[in-house]
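Readers of this paper often ask what the protein records in our data store actually look like. An entry from our holdings is shown next, in its original layout:
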Amino acid sequence: MSINLKFIYIQILSIFRVNMNSLTEKDILSIVETWNESEDERELESDYELDVNRQIFEYDDSLVDIDNLPEVKDETENIRNMSSTSSNFIDPKTVAKDLKKKYSKVLWKQKEFLNKTYQLCFNGNTTLPNGLLNLETPYHFFKYFWTDELLEHIIQQTILYSSQLDPAHPFKINKAEISQYIGICILSSVIHICDTRKYWSPVIGNKLVQETMTLNHFEKIRRFIHFNDNNKMLPKNNSQHDRLFKIRPLITHLLAKCQSVPYEECMSIDEQLCTTKGKSYLKQYLPDKPHKWGYKLFVLSGVSGFSYNFEIYTAQENDPTKRLSNEPDLGCSANIVIRLLRGVPKYENYRIYFDNYYTTLPLLVELAKNGIHTVGTVRRNRLPNCKLPTEMELKKEKRGTVVEYVTSIDQIDIVTVSWKDNKLVNLISTFTGKNPMKTIQRFDKQINEMVTLDCPDIVKEYNRFMGGVDKTNSLIGRYKIKMKSRKWYIRIFYHLLDVSLVNAWVLCKRASIEREMEDTLPLLDFRLQVAETLCKIGTATITTRKGRPSKMENTTEVKRQRISATHYPSTDIRLDNYAHWPVWTAERQRCKNPTCSSLTFVICDKCKINLCFQKNRNCYKEFHLNK
């Protein structure tokens, strides 16, 4: 068997990653004898895996003379550099082993956890700035996220994309038309029709949609709408390729606007699903969710339901090149938390809540060093040397039994609590533990009545503040844009539009509370007012009809239904000073100006309300100019 000893030497270094000084001649010869010449060299790694439990070889004087191979070291370094630069990826298993080794000697003691008063004192600022407090209407809060600069960028990229497809006939669009398109999309989240084209149907269609834009123009916008230049997208084999390149400018802009709002004291991190059944390699399958298929997002949300930060999963986020220099590598799930909390101020005692997917000891220690305290459920296999009881051990114990263990890592006190409810619940925290004990009501099947159980403070704390992302998902799910599209980034565009509307509504409520004003509109009315404003502001109403007039319209009289209340337009539509044409009607109606009660034949063609226009009184002008 003729095998180059130098090649074997390089393979042993690159595969086993051990020092040659630790291998005896007997070990090298055993590898040589078991070498299979017929196998491809690419299968070498799978054939000769080093056992992690193998003892380190002792040094022997009868080793191969390494001095005769001085150039091998450089070639080995080249092999390692080539493998590292080609993938830019560190094996998560290697990181997990290093962290496990570091935290394997942690000692846990069964004792009471002592809360520190300075940890419970919140030093952050949650007051909204004057720029947000001065926003008044729902349209203003929505425009805080979808600014004119963003709309101009979308218009520019849409025209560019259309010119790339057909340079001779580029698609022309302006800011008013893109606003109308967004308004129709929002309106479709409230008024659901299975086919988008049926919104222009004379039978089941919507009058506001029909008066805003024609069907052909709407479909042209939906066809050409774009957010980034495709010519600048890097190929997939490039290490800097961005899988979200087509919609990256929109994500970057919305993240900047969301993070500009002051953070709440208590926030939670959880998954969110942008549901879709379209074909895309970004689509994930989550069997525990109500909707199984879609794009997965990791969201940082406050208790109010406001999304401060989010990250769309593309399997590229954990790339070492995208990690900041001051951020440690704590594993895939823990790194998600580190990235989402980049904008949270340090050393101001913010509190973060997450589930057992993210919870690890290194994560809790790292956040506690930055003055951010945490609570989360935890898996038993992530707590080395901790003798928490199992389900079988607590089977004979009564319901409500509590076991508490405490440890200290790098002068950071950590407490873990096991509480027996219907099942065993394990939680971990850096600022609260079992005490002060509280009570909770549970139903007992044996006696068929409600009973009072002892409940640790950490359980109450977790249940109270963990539902921020769930509340966001609930608000989105009530009124969600369900328009279908074969383009994957259009579905994400609709989802980000829903997230922006929920954030705008929550921000409006928060501003009303700080200004000590009356409650804001319900989410349904908030969406309707934003949609109506986007459809009408700065534009004229479409009144033309296609086809010949029907003879039945002149010969058949239809009894009109009496309307109990008048629909007033929003303040933004009323004061936009565009296309408010007075129209003379055949029937005289009461003037709808609140300060007038006279009768008039004049109606505003855009606002659709009667306003008097007389010699001594001009309610038409007063209604459209005065706030």
